[in-house]
TrEMBL record:
SUPFAM superfamilies hit by this protein: beta-carbonic anhydrase, cab (SSF53056)
Region (Disordered): 13-81
Domain of life: Eukaryota
Bias type Basic and acidic residues, positions: 55-81
Protein's recorded name: Carbonic anhydrase
Low complexity bias spans: 13-34
The organism's taxonomic lineage, starting at the top: Eukaryota, Viridiplantae, Streptophyta, Embryophyta, Tracheophyta
Pfam families to which the protein is assigned, alphabetical: Pro_CA (PF00484)
UniProt binding sites for Zn(2+): 147, 149, 206, 209
Keyword line: Lyase, Metal-binding, Zinc
Organism: Urochloa decumbens
PROSITE patterns hit by this protein: PROK_CO2_ANHYDRASE_1, PROK_CO2_ANHYDRASE_2
Requisite cofactors: Zn(2+)
Annotated cofactor note: Binds 1 zinc ion per subunit.
Family under the similarity heading: Belongs to the beta-class carbonic anhydrase family.
């Protein structure tokens, strides 16, 4: 029986209560300490020694007083520990960019800047009306769950254009079951299915997945960590792989599990009541995809979910194809 207790789910997925007022007051007080007070406000800090001449307001902004540079360094250090302070810097200096003195040959952002400007010229400007429409709303037909692996970008592989696919990426492209509770993946699914009303959910796995290797090599008695806790979601796929391909080498077991975990995630999708409801209504389709970057092929299939299928199962695969 699939979990249906919305009340229990609400308790599991409920947001934490707001921080106590005294914490907010403390943060506000810290923010006030980070930022220079406006003229007329009292300050408990020691003042700098007087200079021979008081510059005019315009000149004072252009020329820092003696010792002021050292105070700025301390200020930046404090702001780095306070996100509100950092945001204030962005707001105050949005028209006055401070460039770091980094050689162009060593700056990793120079290439990104060139690509962005090329995108703006060749894509954004030429499709301006489309981007104006996207600025008002998004109506994607796909929700994509893909791996965080840098070699597997669904936009690059499948050619999604802006507004076509609502995407979430995580280690090993796993979908936790509904009873697992809140996660960035379940939150993205909820928004995509209930608010954007996407018509398709596509789970994309890939070859030589480090997350699947971690799952397959995981020791039950090993020290817990973020990676182990996350990939443990795929334990059922690991058990199925051991049963079906336990006689094969580790690499082949991982390859088997890469596809097994996709199907496991597809079944986990059906544990979400609002996904199961829409699948039963025929307004949502669930798909699996497997990208092999060794030989650049892509396998795609669709999950069938209904009672009374052949063999008494509720699940089947249809529309399987390989793109090569």
């Amino acid at each position: 029986m699939l979990p249906r207790s919305l009340g229990s789910a609400a308790r599991r997925l409920g947001l934490a209560a707001a921080a106590p007022a005294r914490a907010c007051a403390s943060s506000a007080s810290a923010a006030r300490r980070l930022w220079p007070q406006s003229d007329g406000e009292e300050s408990g800090q020691d003042e700098l020694p007087p200079t021979p001449r008081t510059p005019e307001p315009e000149e004072r902004r252009r020329q820092p007083r003696r010792g002021e540079h050292r105070r700025d360094l301390s200020f930046v250090t404090k702001a780095s520990r306070d996100h509100s302070g950092l945001t204030r810097q962005l707001l105050d200096f949005q028209h006055d960019t401070i460039e770091e003195e980094v050689g162009a040959e060593h700056d990793p952002f120079m290439g990104l800047k060139a690509r962005f400007l090329d995108f703006k010229k060749r894509n954004y400007v030429e499709n301006f009306s489309n981007y104006q429409s996207l600025a008002e709303q998004q109506t994607p037909k796909f929700m994509v769950v893909a791996c965080a692996d840098s070699r597997v970008c669904p936009t690059g592989i499948l050619g999604f254009q802006p507004g076509e696919a609502f995407t979430v990426r995580n280690v090993a492209n796993l979908v936790p079951p509904y009873e697992h509770g809140g996660s960035e993946t379940s939150a993205a699914l909820e928004f995509a299915v209930n608010t954007l009303e996407v018509e398709n959910v596509l789970v994309v796995g890939h070859s030589r997945c480090g997350g699947i290797q971690a799952l397959m090599s995981m020791k039950d008695d090993s020290t817990s960590g973020f990676i182990k806790n996350w990939v443990s979601i795929g334990k059922s796929a690991r058990l199925s792989t051991k049963a079906a391909a336990g006689n094969l080498g580790f690499e082949m077991q991982c390859r088997h599990c890469e596809k097994e975990s996709i199907n496991s995630s597809l079944l986990n999708l059906l544990t979400y009541p609002w996904i199961e409801k829409r699948v039963n209504e025929g307004t949502l389709n669930l798909h699996g995809g497997y990208y092999n970057f060794i030989d650049c092929t892509f396998e795609k299939w669709t999950l069938v979910y209904r009672q009374g299928l052949e063999g008494g199962s509720k699940y089947a695969i249809k529309n399987r194809s390989t793109w090569s």
